[in-house]
Structures are given as structure tokens and as C-alpha cells.
Amino acid sequence: MTARIGVVTFPGSLDDGDALRAVGLSGAEAVPLWHDDRDLHGVDAVVLPGGFSYGDYLRCGAIARFAKVMEVLVPAATDGLPVLGICNGFQVLCESHLLPGALVRNDSLHFVCRDQRLRIESTSTAWTGAYAVGEEIVVPLKNGEGGYVADERTLDALEAEGRVVARYLEVNPNGSRRDIAGISNAAGNVVGLMPHPEHAVETLTGPAGHETDGLRFFTSVLRQLVGAGA
Amino acid sequence: MARVVVDVMLKPEILDPQGQAVARALPALGVSGVRDVRIGKRIEIELEGEADEAALERVRAFADQLLANPVIEDYVIHAADDSTSDGPAA
Lengths: 230, 90
Fold this sequence. Notes:
Order of helices and strands of chain A: EHEEHEHEEEEHEEEH
Largest sheet of chain B: 3 strands, antiparallel
Strand order of the largest sheet of chain B: 2-1-3
Number of helices of chain A: 5
Helix content of chain A: 10-25%
Distance between the termini of chain A: 9 Å
Shape of chain A: globular
Structural class of chain A: alpha/beta
Number of strands of chain A: 11
Oligomer: heterodimer
Mean pLDDT of chain A: 96
Low-confidence stretches of chain B: none
Low-confidence stretches of chain A: none
Number of helices of chain B: 2
Radius of gyration of chain A: 16 Å
Helix content of chain B: 25-40%
């Protein structure tokens, strides 16, 4: 039996379809989850997808944090359920206090959409075990409010504890402190990532020369779940 | 009816690119001497009852859960001052 991985759709989610597809391509069973349903339907892991939940009103992710599904997701994540928040999903994880810091408007003021080179900094998370430390990958990035900020003490702690999961290379597209593209919680089961690995999972549509660089985020969690005898 | 205002501002150490863009645009109007511009949000909440300390306390109870993100924002809660001008009189 393979693992079941849920993808939450909020009003305004855009990348839930691609995330479901990436989950399926990784070999897991993709399970659509609904923001207004206080039930995770027994999934083994959850992806919070990109988009503009609730129109980004007030602050990105601020309203989604209070969706019914989050009432069950937050305690489950605290208890170790693997959760990957991509872009808007990362913002929701920060607003939910599952991850420290916040994401603010790009320092350029421009919405940025590009194929972004990243360096994987940690493979001890639920979502990056299939990569190598220091490995460079290219996946699409598209955000208007992707600048990762936290106070210096938090940033130092993230670095010291190996919780910086990925860093921007060549270009810092949004002014993120210390070129941070993704972080994890202390246990490593919750990861927030501003770039979009779910858009780099197929030869037809992935970035040229790096078409499937993002797929291993999804195979990583599958490997961990199956390896754990889930 | 009580009208309570929550003024939300980015913390001083958080870059405000929106404010910077406005600051850079002002010289085009011939405005000089502007050192900095920072942009925040004003949230007006209408509550049942009087605009007293208890009303402020009710807003305080949820302000940092939803209205502001204390990681990046500071906020001030006060009763609405009805003498506040909404701009130049027509």
C-alpha cells in the first residue's frame, strides 16, 4: 500500500492541481483536501499549495490560517505529520506559527517569475531526504511577497540548527534574509518553500535542462513514509 | 456603538518597499525634504456598546491573532476620534 498525500485547496489556491499531479507522479496517492472540511481523511502527509488564498487579504496566509482544515492540520503537524507549504503554503505555515518568521513584499516591488537555481542545504527533513547536501537544482519561482524575514536571533538559530532547507543561488529574487528559500521546523517534518518544486516534475513542462529537479521533494516524503512502515 | 481603530505599521527594521516607492515618486511632484515614507494599515472596527476600555480590551484580545502579525508589524489600538478629518472638506 502506498502513502496517501493530501493537498489542501483554499479559496484562491492556484497550484493545488499541479501539487496533486506531482504527488501522483511521485508514486503516492494524491488526496484532495478542502479548506472548509475539518478532516484530514487519514492522509500520511499534507501539501499546502501556492496561490492567493482568500485573495491575500490582510496579509498573505492570514485568513487561511483560520480555515477549518487548519484546526486539525496544526496539531497533526505539531505531532509529526509531514507538511510541505509551497509559496502561499509557506506563508500559511508562518502565519500558523508552525514555522518562524514571515514573508514580506519582494524588495524589488516586482512580482518575480523565473527558473531559480537553489542549493539544498538540509536533507534531514521529511521532504528533502532524496537530495544531497549542497546539490544544486533549478525550479520555477513566482511570487510577489516572498521575502523571508525573521529577527537576527531566529535566523542564527535556523542556521545553527540546520533548519535552512534551501538557499537562492546566483540571484536573490525577493530580498530574503540570508538568501533563504526554505526552512523547516525543529523536527524536520514541516517545511516551507517559496519556489515551486511541483512545477518541475515532468520533462514536457519543467525548466530546460532541469525538467524534473523538483520531483524528489515528493519522493522524499514517500520514501520516508514507506520506510517507516506507514 | 463603539468604533475602535487599529493602526498597523511594519516594524521599523522591516523594509517597506511600498513606502520607498512613494518616497521616490514625491520629487516628481516637486516635493523636497522628504526623508522617508512608511505605509501602514488603518483598521476600523465597529462594536456593540460603548467605546470604553472594555471595548479596546475586546479588540486587543484578537488584534495580534489576526489583524497584525507581531513578527513583522506593530499596532496601536484606540477609540475612533470622530473629529478626525477624512481629508479636505468639499
